[in-house]
Amino acid sequence: MDVKTLCLGILTLGNATGYEIKKQFEEAFSHFYAAGYGSIYPALNQLAADGLVTFTEVEQEKRPDKKVYSITDAGRRRFAEVLAQTPPRHRLRSEFMVLMFFAQMLPTERIAEVIEEELARNRDVLTRIECAEGSPEWNTPGGRVTLEFGRALTQAAIDYLERKAPVLLEELAAPSEDTTSLDAEQEPEIDETLTKNTA
Amino acid sequence: MDVKTLCLGILTLGNATGYEIKKQFEEAFSHFYAAGYGSIYPALNQLAADGLVTFTEVEQEKRPDKKVYSITDAGRRRFAEVLAQTPPRHRLRSEFMVLMFFAQMLPTERIAEVIEEELARNRDVLTRIECAEGSPEWNTPGGRVTLEFGRALTQAAIDYLERKAPVLLEELAAPSEDTTSLDAEQEPEIDETLTKNTA
DNA sequence: CGTTTCATGTAAGTGGTTACATGATTTC
DNA sequence: GAAATCATGTAACCACTTACATGAAACG
Fold first, then answer.
1. pLDDT, averaged across chain B
2. Phi, psi of A135 (to 5 degrees)
3. What's the CA–C1' distance between A11 and C28, in Å?
4. Which of A98, A120, B99, B154 is the most exposed place for a label (fewest CB within 10 A)?
5. Which residues pair with A91 in a beta bridge?
6. Interface contact B98-A180, CB threshold 8 A
7. DSSP characters for B88-113?
């Protein structure tokens, strides 16, 4: 599913400008789908060219002019069609996790900093979700589920990081002390090769 | 961070072929970074051209020939550099969540199916993580953290979906019965417009 | 006997990011 | 006086996805 389709979906909920659509993304979707102006505005132009949305130019005093977009019947039909045949993918791309994986290659303070940043980001997501939960706008069955689901995941992340960050930092500071495995004594390095070929 | 850098990182752990690198991705990284052959093989060719890895062609009987890649000193240095200046991003793109959000627009059985699929996927991720946790290969401070963190998030997702899926399906089947808000009586539809302009 | 495993690649297409461009108004 | 808000866009670039191509052997 692309940004074009998502814009269509948001316009299903009511008329909006490109700028407002971006805000909708940030308010309720930011924890599972990001989109910037660089993809939203071209998407809207394309949708208009395809007759899936229409717009009215509104002149304003003291504010830049704006285009208020509405979804057309064709647009509604198209959205329903696309939605019906969208496979429910769920992909994470996390440089944070990569940094954690290769934690030994970075200074321990840097890791501490990175974890702190990630915690801050998660707390931020959480407040944004709780704020959206308070607004009546997202109080639909689907809206509630996505917000609650987002909250559950974000809370789990915060809990884990708060609990385990100190342990990791300790391990990194003192690599010889192994706090979890008592039987593995002095395993110095991973073997030179990962190829376990029987040939 | 791109696939090229990730390949370099994996080769930090030991020599491997492109095929094996893909397997490493699947075993330990799949829950936070995906990569297919279509990005791995070109990445390795580029890395070799840049002198960051070398390879030996190994002829095999009964198996296709293969190229075993090793990271060079320049490659190690480059990886450390890139890692040190990688911002810890963490982005989710979830069509599953989009489907949940627009659940009212789909048949209830389809939603049930989608949730079941997502649960199955999560259980799959969980077993893959638990399998990796059993193997000594990922028993490093960083390896443990990424696996445990992945497990925490996946478990939270499973818990939430198992707990709340029946509630959602009930709400969708009987839209008039509102199980959560007792004060909101007969709010029929979201307002025609999302524009809350004061002008 | 069908599927998975091993093994490497290419080529076209897509879709999104980043940076740039502009500028008045309101809030802190 | 600085920063955020409102408001819309373009253009170059980049990285990844998907589909295609090939083929023997082992496993169930």
1. 90
2. -80, 140
3. 34
4. A120
5. B93
6. no
7. --EEEEEHHHHHHHTGGGS-HHHHHH
Which bases on strand C have an atom closer than 7 Å to a protein beta carbon? Answer: 6-12, 14-20, 23-26
Please give the Cα distance from A23 to A10 (Å, whole number): 11
Tell me: the pLDDT tens digits for A101-147? 999 999 999 999 999 999 999 999 999 999 999 888 899 999 999 99
Ramachandran class of A14: left when φ > 0, alpha when ψ lies in -120 to 50, beta otherwise? left
Inter-CA distances, B34 with A30, A169, B21, B25, B27, Å = 21, 27, 12, 7, 11
Which residue, among B23, B166, B197, has the nearest Cα to A60 in the 3D structure? B197
Please check whether residue B161 is in contact with residue B119, taking contact to mean a CB–CB distance below 8 angstroms. Answer: yes
Residue B184 and residue A136: Cβ atoms within 8 Å?
yes
Give the nearest chain B residue to A5 (CA atoms). Answer: B98
- pLDDT tier, A193 (very low <50, low <70, confident <90, very high otherwise): low
* CB contact at 8 A, A86 and B114: no
